[in-house]
Amino acid sequence: MALLGAPSSSSSSRATATHRYDVFINFRGEDTRYNFISHLHSALCRKGIDTFVDYGIQKGDEIWNGLVEAIRESKLFLVIFSQNYASSKWCLKELVEIMECRNKNENNVIVIPVFYKIDPKTVRYQTGSYSTAFDKHGKRSSDSKHVQQWRNALFEASTLSGFHCDDRREEAKLIEEIVETILPKVRKNCYRDEHKSPFICNSNYASVKSSLRLKLEKVHVIGIWGMAGIGKTTIATALFNECSSEYEGRCFLTFSEGQGVNHVCARILSELLNEDLRVDNIRVIHSRIIRKLKHMKVFIVLDDVTNSQQILTKLIQMFHDWLSVGSRIILATRDRNVLTSGGVEEIHEVKEMDFEDSLELFSYYAFNDSQPKEGYYQLSTRVVADYAQGVPLALTILGSFLKTKGEREWDSALRKLRKYPNADIHQVLRLSYDALDDDEKNILFHVAGFFIGNEMEEVIRRLNSFGFFADIGIRNLLDKSLISVNSYNDEKFIKMHALIKEMCWKISCEEQSKNGGQQTRLWSTEEVCNTLQDERDIHGVESMIADMNQITIDSRLIFVALRKMPKLRLLALRGNINPDIGWNGELPEDFQLPNDLRYIGWDKCPLKFVPSICWPKQLVELSFHGSDVEKLWDAVQDVPSLEKLDLRRCKRLKECPNLEGAPNLKLVTFFGCESLQDVHPSILSHPKIEEINVSYCTSLKRLCSDNCPPSLRGLWATGCSNLEEFSISMKADNSKLLELCLSSTALREVPSTIMNLKNIGCYGFHIIYALEKLPPNLARAILLMDPIKYEDDPYIILSRIFPSPPFLCLKQLIFFECQSLSKLPDDIHVLQSLQVLEVESCPVITTLPESIKNLQQLMDIYIYDCEMLQYIPPLPPSVISFCAVNCKSLETVSSSLTSEPSRNDIASFKFHNCTKLDDHAYIHVLKDLKSRVELVASDGAYNNNANTFFYYLPTEESMLTNDWFPRYYHPEGSSFILAVPPDDKISPCLVLCMLLSNYQSWKFINSMLFGCRCYISERGSNERECIAASGVRTSLTSNIRSMFGAKMVSDQYHMALWYDSKFSKRIMEAIKERNRGNTSGNPILIFDLHAKTVNNEEVWIKGCGVHWMHVDVKDEGEEEEVSPDVVIDGYRSHDLENIQRTGERVDNVYCCALDILNWFQRSLVSCLGLSSGVEIHPPSSPTTAFISTAATASSSVIPAAAASTTRTNPAEHEDLEAPQVDTWERTKNVSTVSDTAKMEPPLGKADQERFTVEVVDQVNEVLACLNHPLEEISGSSELRDRLINATCSLGSKISEETNSALVAFIEEVLVVYPSDQSIQALEDHDRQLEKYEGTAIEQEENTRSQAVENKNADLISKVDKIYASDESSALVESVNQATRDLEQAERRVQRLRQRQEDLKLQLRIYFR
């Protein structure tokens, strides 16, 4: 696959360029053939470089055609300038052809001059022997017409970077340097895939390449691991193609089954040494081979490494012992265990592609384009999001399959995929399944059918109860990427890709067919109904799941069928029975459960009473979540294996079952059983009980027991509003107790039975005075809620209990659903050990106390759903994490968010859905980020750490045009482009920004993933290199304790800002390395940003940007910021990429002109009171709109100006002429860079230069006029004429709104200060406009010229209303009237002057 940027539809059909020769040497034979050239040619051949040298062939037409063909089939040219080079017209003709190939830039050719015993100036300016040679050429009539062409080629080639050989330099060393320089250039791309298959250079690729650590001087082995079809081989191939050319030895080997270590070793050595070697024993290798390897830096890829731990271990040891430092080895496998057991140092897991990249890859295969064609977006989304889900294999196969098919065929194919998986995808995915043993296959099937989304430890426990070896089985499934996990706080939940689940379903169907139709698993309600209705063999069924509300058969068939399933181990039913089929609400009299059942679940079961039956002795878990059951059983039931009883939200349950017959019981929950009045004492008598949850059992009155087993880890009785008695004897040896929550109960005193406890995880209670009686060190965290009955104002109670011993040593304090707590007491500062403060669902709190800044140990603050909170005071410098969510009234944040940032490596400040934050709060938050970044930059030792700072807050897009993102904010899309700045304008202080759209998710969003990839490329090139990647995983709601989950709704844009020191440093280092090695070209940085939830829910990015801080710490401690100079500001990222793919380019001069227009509009927006929704209208083709009404500059201006590289310091000029000079000098500097560009810009060079000169002249003309006093503008016909002319010319290049505002401003000036001179000036202007309009119509009648005509005509009509040429007397009278009303117009004048001063101030700020 191609390394980057799959071709667009316009370029994909273009034939791939092929090179017959690596190097073509252009030289004068009589000077160098038998000395320098012969040695150089030999050296190149020794390195395997295919070189064309014209050895003494006779010149002629046929030979010349052969030379031209050789030139066009070469990728690099060495031009050897010698003393008599110019005397050979054949050398000169070859040089012209070479430079034409380079200037076309079709094949990315490279030209390197070598000045062999001749001064480069002699060649460049054609003096000395070159002058003599050209004099002779000029005298020959056949050559004279080519002389200027030869001179130009000589001049252009001699200005390129190359080598100089004089009498003081050894030729052998020079040849060695030339070969070393050429070798990586000609080897680069030598392994490129000729088919140019699409390849998305995403975060997986960037991460793997980064882990290669190419500059590390050691043998480095890395592993690439992931599910089948995820792109491991593709990534490894791309890295091999890109990097291996820099190494002396290369090998790409795909493992095959049955190969021994000797065979594999022989293949690797043969590839590396380019010899046919045989290895009989890896321990006996000839010393000659080892010596060669020890002096070779090699790049090896071993693909599809499976079940070969011993082979891999021996190979890795061989790599470390035999290979030279700097060698790199990549191992790709589906089984992580192969890598870990083999001793691989660094393992990278290849993740699924995100939606944006997936859609792009799929579109390349389906439409030969980077996006779906019109009418196919929704269908493509179904493939990408619903089926493939980020697996490249599925995207490529389905894209190719659906290509050229119509919409109806697409829809039919996608519906078919739901029932019949694609065979090609299934075949690849099955490779991992086939490597499993029988036990692991059964575990995989159970996970696919029943346990996706369940907590991993719970799944392992259940599977172990089924008789499987689940601990090692689940581990192996994870290693083989057949399952994965999602983490939420400290828990892990099992996840499985939809394609893997589909594969399991298909394999299960295949096994059923092989077994004569006998089924082992019934995975769906439809399957259950069909099986029972058709009376199929169900004797071997081991697991069954069904939604009782969706069954279409008599429910009695299901209950009777259970007796015929003796092997059934898992029974999972859901919902009430479908009322359409009829049911009397009772089980059959002969109802019987299979004896081997381990798990029984019937959520929302309609039974009110479970009849007396013989419960299975092997039963491990019984669940009736949300059911109507009132009583579980009467007598004691013998369930010796029962470990978990789940009766959550059984609101009608009145009686707790006797559980004396369950000696292995570990967990029981009655959460939300509102009718439950008592808990059977047998529950607390079990020695293995770990968790008891009776929260929100509102009828429960007492919870008592004389015994508390040491195994108890948690007891929750929150919200038991009638609980008046709690007497469970707890001792100090209850060391496993993590949580004890008795909040919002009817208890009026702290239970005496808990006074002996120490260092429990969390103690929950309501706010009462009795809390001060708690023993010291009772708990590391205390959770406080509202009491049922209030003793006093909670604020007063807290003020009294805070100084008590249990609170003074507290680490974490939580306020949860305190409805009456209006504020926290000021003496919270006494809690000097406090590290975490949480305030959730406290609706009347308006502010945090000012004294909070004195909590020197406080690190984390979380505030959720505090609807009345309005103000955040200064926080202590120790705070590194602050999160406010859904605080809809929060307006103000202290000007010193943290009084002094601490030297921590991480910091996070988030304000989600705090929609009333004012502008000052926004600035104060940014100030904190700025301070932290400056601290990193100014402290050398601190700067060596891996620092990550993340800030998240609501904002409007207009806020992003402040000082932080003045020209680097891209208002649309998730990517943008910057020109690479010079070394003195870069620093490791890069802050990324993205504007997230309003979104809502009804799911509990635990974490968000924010990321960015940075690429470096040449403008006009189809290739780019990923130089850095950054990712931030941050929680927006991680500590929310609401048992109903959090509904995250965002109704405003949110901005995410983050600083990643490693990311910034890698970019800085890559730029400096690029600048050292390449002084030509037009390098650019491409930033691609992305955001999504941990559940892969994409969040749309409205815009993105970057702030590049350059911090210079002076002796006085002052700091100043400098930003990169050139930004491609007139084009969106994807527009530029399209230009790159089609071979067009954007010239720097032209971009600078667009940049000037952008800046000019922003200045007008600020001074004339416009909205920010202005846009540039750059012309797309040369039309009359380019011709300025002022003097049109000739096309020679830019090249002449480009020769100057001296930049005027704008600070030396105090008046507005300084910006005029600086703007022009800025344009000259940028155009100097553009001289190296050889691809034609969209408008053509001459038209582009003319447009640029016009923009600069017209903008400066407007600014120069506005710099004069208003009286002078109105009184001077010359100034007014200049102002109107420049405004008319700019009218075709700026937006309608901006142009109208500028015209209105001029009208106001003329109305306030009319004069006799203005009449003549306007009449002259009318004549100029008429002349211009006539010329424009004659030159070109198109839409652009018509637009210019309309705008000029509009301006004329507006001015004519004031000064009609046929009403002179009326005009004189209006002048007199204006004079008389001068005092009344004074306020208007003052307003205009203020606007003028604002504009001048903006100019000075811009140019400084």
From TrEMBL:
Q: Which InterPro entries match?
A: AAA+_ATPase, Apaf_helical, Disease_R_plants, LRR_dom_sf, NB-ARC, P-loop_NTPase, TIR_dom, Toll_tir_struct_dom_sf
Q: Which UniProt keywords apply?
A: Coiled coil, Leucine-rich repeat, Plant defense, Repeat
Domain of life, source organism: Eukaryota
- Per UniProt, residues of the TIR domain are 19-186
Coiled-coil annotation: which residues?
Answer: 1368-1402
Q: Which PROSITE patterns match?
A: TIR
User: Which SMART domains has this protein been placed in?
Assistant: AAA, TIR
Membrane-spanning residues: none
Q: Which Pfam families match?
A: NB-ARC, TIR, WHD_ROQ1
What name is this protein filed under?
TIR domain-containing protein
